[in-house]
Design a protein that fits this description.
The complex is a heterodimer of chains A (about 150) and B (about 600). Chain A is mostly helical and about 150 residues long. Chain A contains four helices and one strand, in the order ααααβ. In chain B, strands 1-2 form a two-stranded antiparallel ribbon. The chains are: A mainly alpha (about 150), B mainly alpha (about 600). At the A-B interface, helix 2, helix 3, helix 4 and strand 1 of A face helix 7, helix 10, helix 11, helix 13 and helix 14 of B.
């Protein structure tokens, strides 16, 4: 099919059509399952050494925020919160504590998926096109069953 | 000019009526037009409703029932419920499920109707309707797990309703009123029972596990719908009837903390969101507890209301994004996911916006809402050292929110290790609903570049708009300290991952308080049944032998051939009977004098 606009038609139609085709192409997942917008929005996450870049980037940003705190006189309601870097250190400490507590708590509280006897497949309103993992394998036993 | 009957129509009633009709409609397009149109019409009705007057009601058997009354407190909750209902209807458009469509709308309607109720009895009626309608959203998942979970859910929700009714009976017995006036003390008649009834729905610590048990087992759409209403209705009820109750401060602070530890080890990302919901409601409950004391009064109740509004939207957004993942991949287990940004970039983007909002990054809705609560608690801390501890607990929980909802959810679903799953992007209607929610998260959290828009739009709708207008969230202090908290916490994540100190996502379920009734309680019942099965026949045999023996002895004594008829006075049995009768008559005569 020719891309030429027939004589006597508004040339803007071609622009609109191409824009629509482009938008359509950007919304179609490729045969490999890669969505074209993935590259636009998150292609940067595939950069080489992205792990190191994020690590050092966050480290520098953290230090910068503490340094800015040195230059600014804050007026907190609670006096001790005026200490330089208080919020940052509290956030760092709290996050680290929560995550590290995950190790002993996981050992203490984690049980088999079918511990209550109700393990099964996904809900019935998932995409009918996909093979529901686990749906074909009935649970070994059910809660309340003998 | 609106017709009088429309002006008096509680928007929730409209939603319930349309929901029930929709449930009977087989034509999908008409049904979906109704489920989208009804919330829009309801928002219009609400916008036109005058504040502070009873717009409809009736007197029944001496009880003054007020069906519809709008004021500064319930307006913001009702509006958030209606917006959530609209988003839910759009999100569900790819499905063709009459029961789900109808019940979702009726459930939202019941929550709205309860919010605008002007008396305790009307509140109770719609409180119960939320329980009955919402259970279908769990059931519609169609799995055995959801069936059992829905039974447990219904039992606990009905228990809340029964307690509420019991408390209302006390209140009416002692005060003769059904008004929604706030209690000043938990020692007032009925106050403690109503407090516990509300606490069950708000998922207080140790009463919370119905939430993590049922929501993750609901259908894809059902979990999104469920996330908006029940717990926030309870938050509204607390704000209405228990502002300034000290107990709420500590209960709320505890609620912000404990779910964080469960969320970090939970593998099912929808259950992580359920714990996150618990944690967020804790902030609101704590703010309500601060509510009536000193300078923090308007700021704290504004904080709880703003937080509820923002939370309903961003939590729905997060549940929607996980719902989209579940819809396309069939799972939300972190151990089975990863790398989905390649297939679902829009869903990834919307999930990140939800994560930024709930973590309270500046320019997102959580920031302008949570700042109010944190400032209110800090003000109380000046005069009360105990409130400093509460403030530190909330600050700790803020880092915890970032961990489970800001980082864990988007990172393990869409990035982390590539699971190799290559699926289609979410259906357009799901993306549209997520896009609308994401827009609201940003629009509400943005500075007021245009007067009346951005965060000032939300602040103007709060219960104390004048006090809200004087509060400035975008000060250098606020932005800097919040960024410090979040950036250094994120750096902790990067550091822990780099040194392999972050626990791996492993399959399995995490024990919680539901173990008490699902394992220990069930075990006790099974044991009692077994014991009875063995003991029963033995006890029956013992009883039969004892009965036979007693009969034989009586027969041996009193029958015509019995010992009392043998020898001595003739008819000894008759004489003894006469003696006993005489004694009875004598005693009756003496005692009657």
């Amino acid at each position: 099919m020719s891309d030429e606009t027939p004589a006597g038609r508004d040339a803007s139609g071609r622009f609109v059509r191409r824009a629509a085709e482009k938008a359509n192409a950007m919304s179609q997942t490729s045969r490999e399952g890669i969505h074209p917008m993935a590259k636009v929005l998150f292609g940067w996450t595939e950069a080489r050494n992205i792990g190191a870049i994020i690590f050092w980037g966050m480290a520098i940003l953290s230090v910068a925020l503490i340094l800015v705190d040195l230059l600014i006189k804050r007026h907190e309601t609670l006096d001790f919160a005026n200490s330089t870097g208080f919020y940052g250190l509290w956030g760092f400490g709290a996050f680290t504590f929560v995550v590290l507590m995950g190790w002993p708590l996981g050992h203490l509280l984690r049980r088999d998926e079918n511990y209550y006897g109700d393990a099964g497949g996904p809900p019935q309103d998932i995409d009918p096109d996909i093979a529901a993992p686990g749906a074909s394998a009935p649970p070994r036993r059910h809660e309340g069953d003998k | 000019m609106m017709p009088a009957f429309l002006a008096a129509l509680n928007p929730g009633w409209l939603l319930i009526a349309v929901g029930l009709i929709a449930m009977l409609l087989p034509v999908r397009a008409v049904r979906q037009a109704m489920t989208i149109g009804a919330p829009l019409a309801a928002i219009a009705l609400l916008a036109l409703a005058p504040h502070g007057v009873a717009l409809s009601g009736v007197e029944v058997v001496g009880l003054d029932l007020v069906f519809y009354k709008v004021d500064g407190l319930n307006f913001i909750f009702g509006l958030a419920f209606l917006i959530a209902s609209l988003l839910n209807a759009i999100y569900a458009m790819h499905t063709n499920d009459r029961i789900q469509d109808g019940m979702a709308l009726a459930y939202a309607g019941a929550a709205v109707a309860a919010t605008f109720a002007g008396d305790l009895m009307t509140l109770f009626i719609f409180w119960e309707i939320t329980a009955v309608t919402s259970v279908f959203l769990v059931l519609q998942a169609g799995t055995r797990a959801s069936y059992f979970a829905s039974l447990r859910y219904l039992a606990i929700q009905v228990l809340s309703g029964v307690l509420l009714l019991d408390g209302i009976a006390y209140v009416h017995r002692y005060t003769g009123s059904l008004s929604l006036d706030a209690f000043t003390s938990l020692n007032e008649p009925g106050a403690l029972i109503i407090f516990i009834a509300f606490g069950i729905k708000a998922a207080f610590p140790f009463l919370h596990n119905w939430l993590q048990d049922s929501y993750p087992k609901a259908s894809v759409v059902g979990a999104v719908v469920l996330s908006a209403f029940t717990t926030k209705l309870a938050v509204y009820a607390f704000a209405r009837m228990f502002p300034g109750q000290d107990a709420l401060i500590w209960i709320g602070a505890l609620m912000t903390i404990f779910p964080v530890f469960f969320a970090v080890i939970e593998n099912d990302l929808r259950r992580v969101l359920a714990y996150s919901l618990n944690n967020q409601v804790g902030f609101m409950i704590c703010a309500i507890g601060i509510g009536a004391a000193g300078i923090g009064n308007p700021l704290a109740l504004n904080g709880a209301s703003a937080h509820a509004f923002a939370h309903i939207i961003y939590k729905a957004l997060l549940f929607m994004s996980m719902g989209a993942v579940l819809y396309r991949t069939g799972t939300t287990k972190a151990s089975e996911l990863g790398g989905l940004y390649k297939s679902m970039p829009w869903t990834t983007l919307f999930c990140i916006i939800g994560g930024l909002s709930i973590s309270a990054f500046p320019l997102f809705s959580g920031f302008i809402a949570k700042s109010l609560t944190m400032s209110a608690v800090a003000y109380e801390g000046v005069s009360d050292p105990a409130m400093v501890i509460v403030w530190l607990m909330l600050l700790f929980a803020s880092a915890g929110v970032l961990e489970h909802s800001g980082i864990k959810i988007p990172f393990f679903a869409f990035f982390a290790h590539d699971s190799g799953k290559r699926v289609k992007e979410a259906p357009f209607n799901m993306l549209l609903a997520m896009g609308m929610a994401a827009f609201l998260c940003i629009a509400v959290g943005f500075p007021a570049l245009v007067p009346g828009l951005g965060y000032t739009w939300l602040y103007a709708l709060l219960p104390y708009p004048i006090e809200a207008a004087s509060y400035k969230p975008f000060t250098l202090d606020h932005v800097l300290t919040q960024m410090q908290l979040l950036v250094l916490a994120t750096f902790a994540f990067v550091l822990l991952r780099r040194f392999r100190l972050y626990p791996a996502e492993k399959p399995g379920i995490i024990l919680d308080t539901d173990w008490l009734y699902r394992k220990a309680g069930l075990g006790l019942a099974v044991w009692a049944n077994t014991v009875w099965a063995k003991l029963g026949p033995a006890m029956t045999d013992l009883f039969r032998k004892a009965s036979a023996s007693t009969y034989n002895r009586l027969e041996a004594a009193f029958s015509p051939r019995g010992q009392l008829s043998q020898g001595g006075l003739t008819g000894g049995a008759a004489i003894w009977t006469a003696v006993v009768l005489g004694v009875v008559l004598l005693m009756s005569f003496v005692t009657s004098q």
